[in-house]
Design goal:
Layout: E1 14-24, H1 27-38, E2 41-45, E3 49-53, E4 63-67, E5 74-81, H2 84-97, E6 101-104, E7 112-116, E8 122-126, E9 150-157, H3 160-169, E10 173-179, E11 188-192, E12 200-204, E13 209-216, H4 221-232, E14 239-245, E15 252-257, E16 263-267, E17 281-284, H5 299-303, E18 306-307, H6 325-331
Parallel strand pairs: 1-4, 5-8, 9-12, 10-17, 13-16
Antiparallel strand pairs: 1-5, 2-3, 3-4, 6-7, 7-8, 9-13, 10-11, 11-12, 13-18, 14-15, 15-16
Helix pairs in contact: 1-4
The structure holds fe (ii) ion.
Length: about 325
């Protein structure tokens, strides 16, 4: 496959990854994890929902947790568009493309559109939210890792090239991608609108399923602080991968699973990828075996993900065969 080109005349102006909506069994347990251990800030809460934001964020929420009596799932991932006019353009674009799209009412958000992308990922688009004070320098209110802002999502999907083509047609740019050694059909695509390497990432796997939401931390030591505090509060076993350094994106990272097994990444932010001459960076899948330092992720990091509510996952044509921690240990390397 040749990598598709970004559409320079995007049908509407999507600006960034915005928010994720997850369902959880026990809001109290989720609050202990996300607020006390991870350090997200509560914007609003009720007996049925918890609206969270990062310490730098003025938007009302970047993570919404809704109580469910059913199986925990991801309801939607959210994208921002620049103006109300862009929402109307998005509606017209998806109507023309034959994708079911509808206006919905969502608390604390302006007009909101629901649509699913080309591989079935449920999306939520809005131009505005209520605002709350940024806590950027209110250090006395910081907890846990004091995450700054939501940066990106990662989705597992069986048709990565199809997802890539869909978002590049919306004006997203490909920053990095991973192919099998010697092959040219991508296993991972990292796409962005806001000028750093990621807003939405797709990886080959049974899906669509929600792999993780990532929040920035301003200082690297906060990754270790998050581990220490999580451990002290009884969430030590929720640490899944890291601390370590990524290949694509190059960031230092740590991954946790929340009490419902949803996955969150904390990382120390990204480089700028804005100028038009920046070409996508290709990685061979073997980089995970040849990484400079650190351990590969355990198998579950590659294969476990949250279902999207009401969406049946499909298996990929190319069965994933990642280099895992289990393989690394079996080799005695
Ligand atoms: Fe990530």
């Amino acid at each position: 496959m040749s990598i598709p080109k970004t559409n320079p005349n995007a049908p509407f102006n999507a600006t960034r990854a915005s928010h994720a909506v997850l369902t959880v069994k026990d809001l109290g347990a989720s609050r202990a994890f996300y607020v006390d251990a991870i350090g997200l800030v509560v914007s609003d809460e009720s007996t049925d929902a918890l609206f969270l934001r990062g310490t730098e964020e003025a938007c009302h929420h970047s993570l919404v947790l809704k109580r469910t009596d059913g199986a925990p799932a991801c309801e939607r991932v959210g994208l921002r568009v620049y103006t109300e006019e862009d929402l109307d353009k998005a509606k017209a674009h998806f109507d023309k493309a034959g994708l079911p799209v509808k206006w919905v009412e969502v608390p604390h958000q302006g007009r909101t559109l629901h649509v699913s992308d080309a591989v079935g990922t449920p999306l939520e688009l809005c131009a505005t939210m209520e605002t709350r004070p940024r806590l950027t320098v209110q250090f006395e209110k910081f907890k846990g890792a004091a995450p700054g802002r939501l940066d990106h999502f990662q989705i597992l999907a069986p048709e990565v090239p199809k997802a890539c083509a869909f978002y590049l047609d919306l004006g997203f740019r490909l920053s990095e991608y991973i192919c099998p050694d010697g092959g040219d059909e991508p296993l991972f695509v990292f796409m962005q609108r806001k000028g750093n390497p990621h807003d939405i990432v797709f990886a080959n796997g049974a899906g669509p399923r929600f792999h993780h939401v990532a929040f920035t931390v301003a200082e690297s030591h906060r990754l270790f602080q998050a581990c220490d505090i999580a451990g002290a509060l009884g969430f030590g076993r929720n640490l899944e991968h890291g601390p370590g350094r990524h290949g694509p994106g190059h960031a230092l990272f740590v991954y946790f699973r929340d009490p419902d097994r949803h996955r969150i990444e904390l990382f120390n932010t990204h480089y700028q990828m804005m100028d038009i001459e920046n070409e996508p960076v290709r990685w061979d899948a073997s980089y995970t075996r040849n990484r400079a330092w650190g351990l590969p992720p355990r198998r579950q990091w590659h294969f476990e993900a949250s279902p999207f509510a009401g969406v049946a996952p499909r298996d990929p044509a190319r069965k994933p065969d990642p280099f895992t921690l289990e393989k690394f240990l079996a080799e005695g390397a």
